[in-house]
């Protein structure tokens, strides 16, 4: 599956920008496969089992739906757990929360600054 290969490669390469340890060998070891096997996943010459896809999703903290190309939103199960923790039942707010994954870095940086300003406000 081409999209799976593209997405896991992009995820790893993006992580490697800020942390050089994110080599194919590092990811392979973390998910319990040989480096050559993981390389084949990234190249699209071999498809991982569903169990391995779940391990990859957990490792990169994304959903399996994202890896398979069913969505462009990188929402993991941990996000749903956070949502339940804060009881976000407001549909509009929840949708906005999930749409954040689609925002560019400049927009997210601005939103983070605004959030910090709000957190630092004195009541």
UniProtKB/TrEMBL annotation:
InterPro entries: Cro/C1-type_HTH, Lambda_DNA-bd_dom_sf. Keywords: DNA-binding. GO terms for molecular function: DNA binding. It holds the Pfam family HTH_3. Gene3D superfamilies: lambda repressor-like DNA-binding domains. PROSITE patterns: HTH_CROC1. Residues 8-67 form the HTH cro/C1-type domain. PANTHER family: HTH-TYPE TRANSCRIPTIONAL REGULATOR XRE, TRACRIPTIONAL REGULATORY PROTEIN-RELATED-RELATED. This is Helix-turn-helix transcriptional regulator. It comes from Bacillus aquiflavi. The lineage of its organism: Bacteria, Bacillati, Bacillota, Bacilli, Bacillales.
